[in-house]
Write a structure and sequence with these properties.
six-stranded mixed beta sheet; single chain; 11 helices
């Protein structure tokens, strides 16, 4: 499809891989578009009974790339790079582009399984949370990272965290932006299966699901999602509204600059 995402379909399984391995599959403008396009393609791809989403190289997805992060602090794009704009929203959608790369997996009629290793930070953990089932390596470094950069989770993360975790745990992870392991994520309930071989195990489950009646599996996903997605549109709209109150503010810029300058941030009270 692109130099960011590949799709291979075999025996009813769509093997979707993030292929920006040299950047730990970090999210830039092209990656946002490629992931969303992959999901849209699979909505109408004939013969697909299950999807496995993974990342090539050392990580699943390390979140927003550093060039995009610097742009949030007012820096222009580097030479040859595009201005990151994941806030585009198409008519009729409940998501903008950044949200859509996570939510499109819930819109697919067939099950989507993620295989997570290395890093799943910020946008990376939200991407994994958008899938139906998650296989995660115990040593994976995970974080709801946005507040560290002076932002809020705005890629459907607040909605999915609220569905999977107790509110106090979701708040602590979001407020602190701390990094935690795949093992701890499993203990909290964010992870379906903890395994040393997430990709192999995800593919094995996908093969099992592909052997079940596809119409029954799709109908079952629809039924469960009818209950699980209530209130999504309203929450996504709030994510979009509130992140705009943070981008470009003194505290948000200070968050980024302090990190890049390796110093303690100096914030002003809200």
């Amino acid at each position: 499809m692109s130099d960011r995402v590949s799709i291979t379909i075999d025996n009813g399984i769509a093997d979707v891989r993030l292929t920006r391995a040299d950047k730990r599959n970090a999210l830039d403008s092209e990656m946002f578009r490629a992931i969303a396009a992959a999901g849209e393609r699979l909505k109408t791809e004939p013969g697909v009974r299950c999807v496995v989403l993974s990342g090539e190289g050392k990580s699943f997805c390390a979140g927003l790339d550093m060039g995009s992060m610097q742009q949030l602090a007012g820096a222009p794009p580097a030479e040859g790079e595009e201005q990151t704009n994941a806030g585009d929203i198409d008519d009729g959608r409940i998501t903008h582009l950044a949200q859509q790369i996570c939510w499109v997996w819930q819109e697919l009629p067939m099950p989507v399984i993620s295989a997570v290793h290395g890093h799943a930070l910020g946008g990376g953990i939200q991407l994994a949370l958008g899938t139906d089932i998650r296989f995660v390596h115990p040593e994976t470094k995970m974080s709801v990272r946005e507040t560290y950069w002076g932002l809020v989770p705005d890629m459907t993360g607040t909605f999915m965290l609220g569905k999977l975790l107790r509110p106090d745990i979701a708040k602590e992870l979001t407020f602190t932006a701390r990094v935690f392991s795949g093992t701890e994520a499993y203990e909290m309930g964010l992870v379906t299966h903890l395994t040393e071989t997430p990709y192999d195990d995800a593919m094995a489950l996908a093969a099992e699901i592909a052997g079940i009646s596809p119409s029954a599996v799709r109908a079952s996903k629809e039924l469960i999602n009818n209950m699980a997605v209530d209130g999504a549109a309203e929450q996504f709209a709030e994510e979009r509204r509130l992140i705009q109150t943070q981008i470009g503010t003194p505290n948000q810029i200070e968050s980024v600059m302090a990190s890049f300058e390796n110093r303690s941030p100096e914030f002003v009270d809200a």
